[in-house]
Amino acid sequence: MTTTTATGTATGTATGTATGTGTDAAFATALVRMSHVVQYVFADVSREHGVTPQQAQLLCMLNDGPIGMTELSRLLHLEKSSLTGLVDRVERRGLVTRVSHPRDRRACRISLTPEGAGLGEQVHAEICARLDVLGEEMPEADRLRIATALMGVVARYTT
């Protein structure tokens, strides 16, 4: 049985569903439920910092440096017009800037301003800290094994 806490966090065990049975269904169900938890944490942290979850996600993605619009569109799963609107709103707030692409003068890359970099680092650190708390009672070896497995899933998805 699964219950939902006041913060929207699902608790309970992952069980098989009509789309599969056994371990595969339990794994997929756990991932879906975990994605909801991550979304709730993004929403809570974003609200506390006065940005939307989508804006927070953009800032976090830019923490490692400028990214082109095409790549951002792919990473954020947004159509070009939606991404342009998102970037416009964050740019008006002084958190990002458009910079010329070094090899293609028709294209631009999105870069964090100093204010955006500070906020992006804060948001990312706070989201990670809140998610890390969820597993703090697990043995360290289990946490490392789960983290390694999930990074493998992410790598397979992004390639």
From TrEMBL:
<dbReference type="InterPro" id="IPR036390">
    <property type="entry name" value="WH_DNA-bd_sf"/>
</dbReference>
<protein>
    <submittedName>
        <fullName>MarR family transcriptional regulator</fullName>
    </submittedName>
</protein>
<dbReference type="InterPro" id="IPR039422">
    <property type="entry name" value="MarR/SlyA-like"/>
</dbReference>
<feature type="region of interest" description="Disordered">
    <location>
        <begin position="1"/>
        <end position="20"/>
    </location>
</feature>
<dbReference type="Pfam" id="PF12802">
    <property type="entry name" value="MarR_2"/>
</dbReference>
<dbReference type="InterPro" id="IPR036388">
    <property type="entry name" value="WH-like_DNA-bd_sf"/>
</dbReference>
<feature type="domain" description="HTH marR-type">
    <location>
        <begin position="24"/>
        <end position="159"/>
    </location>
</feature>
<dbReference type="InterPro" id="IPR000835">
    <property type="entry name" value="HTH_MarR-typ"/>
</dbReference>
